[in-house]
């Protein structure tokens, strides 16, 4: 790809950026929390059809996925769950095929009064777009779409097959991405524009979600000593799991990537529910938890360690010793992923990065996870993850930095043009 072609594509990104932001704002305005992603998938389907892509829009059947590597159990209503894939088929075959993927599901906004502006009424201020999902990762998804638009606006078309995939469940199980593989979608590489701060994810953790179901013995609070408080017993188990977290972080010091980080394994009791009455000793408590694992660590083995930790802590508790808690697997059962065998797509993206940003791309050792793992681990498809800068993901006043979004869109457009090849329209 010569310098003139590059410049025409870069100029086209600039020319289309206001439209890109308008589309991003419309996308962010849809409150696509878990189970409510349908309107976002409708929007993506409409955008793809308007651009002439071949659209596959299907309902996800959990029974088709439950035996696949990386499947995590679904507990909520999944009757409306869909995946949308738009396929571009070239007139001339001359490049390498590509999957471009983004997730449209977002985490809950939390108490609305703690946001400076409403989470689903996106606002642009001080060079940033604020809103739930603006950073993670709706701006990246729309950025990928407008990267393709820029190639066309510059007078070119790709010479390889491209699958543009909009998935759900990235924040809880990953079965949306898994469904695309079950459906048969494959390519020579995958690119996911998650917000990475302009760095390439080199290695990322896996995640296990589990629920502690703790029993107690209810009594009137006036006679609390004769009962057993399930909420307090749950805290006893949480403290034991915090010690397991310390052990796993010690183990992480031997990992070639994660040894550079302090405390890469994070345990989080994220949801707690328990009791029925303030003046009754609670008879039950459920705690939903998340803990990370590193690439190469066995999910099954670490599930056993969690079970053993909880069982040992229960044996050391007056009531739980005879009323052991239950452990349920409630979402992610996801392995960690290290980017390997990706020299060709990394080289192509490295050239695009150097043109837009200058210099060599920095690696990111990621203490969260992305959908890249399915493509690399399940099918050996090298899967790159790179995107814009932002902040407050999963928090209040989430935002994406717009200048970084423009740059990442430019880098994507040049990468697509190089990897897939282009020809004049």
Automatic annotation (TrEMBL):
Q: Which keywords, in A-to-Z order, does the entry hold?
A: Cobalt, Hydrolase, Metal-binding, Zinc
GO molecular function ontology, one term from the record: acetylornithine deacetylase activity
Keyword Heme in record: no
Q: Does the keyword Chloroplast apply?
A: no
Q: What is its EC number?
A: 3.5.1.16
- Where does the record place the Peptidase M20 dimerisation domain? 204-316
Q: Which Pfam families match?
A: M20_dimer, Peptidase_M20
- Report the enzyme's class at the first EC level: hydrolase
Top-level taxon of the source organism? Bacteria
The UniProt entry, under SUPFAM superfamilies, shows: Bacterial exopeptidase dimerisation domain, Zn-dependent exopeptidases
Instruction: Tell me the cofactors it needs.
Output: Co(2+); Zn(2+)
Family stated for the protein in its record: Belongs to the peptidase M20A family.
Protein's name according to its UniProt entry: Acetylornithine deacetylase
């Amino acid at each position: 790809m010569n310098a003139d072609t590059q410049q025409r594509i870069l100029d086209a990104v600039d020319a289309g950026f206001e439209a890109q932001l308008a589309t991003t704002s419309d996308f962010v305005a849809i409150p696509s929390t878990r189970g409510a992603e349908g309107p976002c998938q409708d929007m993506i389907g409409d955008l793809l059809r308007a651009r002439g892509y071949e659209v596959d829009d299907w309902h996800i059947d959990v029974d088709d996925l439950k035996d696949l590597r990386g499947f995590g159990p679904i507990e909520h209503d999944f009757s409306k769950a869909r995946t949308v894939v738009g396929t571009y088929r070239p007139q001339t075959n001359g490049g390498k095929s590509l999957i471009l993927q983004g997730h449209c599901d977002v985490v809950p906004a939390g108490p609305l009064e703690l946001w400076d502006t409403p989470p689903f009424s996106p606002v642009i201020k001080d060079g940033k777009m604020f809103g739930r999902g603006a950073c993670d990762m709706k701006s990246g998804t729309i950025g990928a779409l407008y990267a393709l638009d820029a190639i066309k606006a510059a007078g070119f078309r790709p010479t390889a097959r491209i699958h543009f995939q909009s998935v759900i469940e990235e924040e809880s199980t990953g079965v949306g991405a898994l469904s695309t593989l079950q459906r048969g979608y494959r390519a020579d590489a995958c690119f996911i524009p998650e917000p990475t701060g302009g760095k390439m994810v080199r290695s990322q953790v896996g995640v296990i979600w589990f629920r502690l179901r703790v029993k107690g013995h209810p009594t009137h609070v006036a006679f609390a000593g004769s009962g057993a408080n399930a909420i307090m017993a749950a805290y006893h188990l949480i403290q034991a799991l915090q010690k397991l977290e310390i052990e796993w972080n010690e183990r992480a010091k031997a990992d070639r990537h994660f040894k550079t980080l302090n405390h890469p394994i994070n345990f989080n009791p994220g949801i707690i529910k328990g009791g029925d009455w303030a003046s009754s000793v609670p008879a039950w408590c459920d705690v939903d938890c998340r803990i990370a694992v590193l690439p190469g660590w066995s999910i099954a083995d670490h599930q056993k360690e969690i079970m053993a930790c909880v069982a040992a802590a229960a044996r050391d508790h007056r009531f739980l010793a005879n009323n052991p808690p239950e452990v349920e697997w409630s979402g992610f059962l996801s392995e960690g992923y290290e980017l390997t065998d990706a020299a060709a797509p990394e080289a192509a993206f490295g050239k695009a990065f150097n043109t837009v940003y200058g210099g060599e791309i920095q690696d990111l050792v990621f203490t969260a996870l992305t959908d890249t793992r399915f493509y690399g681990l399940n099918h050996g498809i090298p899967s790159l993850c790179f995107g814009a800068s932002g902040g407050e993901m999963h928090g209040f006043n989430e935002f994406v930095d717009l200048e970084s979004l423009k740059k990442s869109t430019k880098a994507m457009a040049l990468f697509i043009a190089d990897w897939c090849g282009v020809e004049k329209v």
